[in-house]
Amino acid sequence: MNIRIHNLGKQYGAFPALDGVSLDVRSGELLALLGPSGSGKTTLLRAIAGLEHPERGQILFDGEDATGLSVQARRAGFVFQHYALFKHLDVRGNIAFGLEVRRGAERWSKARINAKVDELLALVQLDGLGARYPAQLSGGQRQRVALARALAIEPRVLLLDEPFGALDAQVRRDLRRWLRELHDRTGLTTVFVTHDQEEALELADRVAILNRGRIEQVGTPGEVYDQPASPFVYGFVGEANRLPARAQGQVLEVAGAQWPRAASVPEGQALEVFVRPEDLVVEAEGDWQATVGLVQRSGPRQRLRARLAGATSDLEVELPAGAPAYAAGQSIRLGARRYGVFPAAAG
Ligand code: ADP
Ligand code: MG
Question: Which segments constitute the ABC transporter domain (predicted)?
Answer without folding.
Answer: 3-237
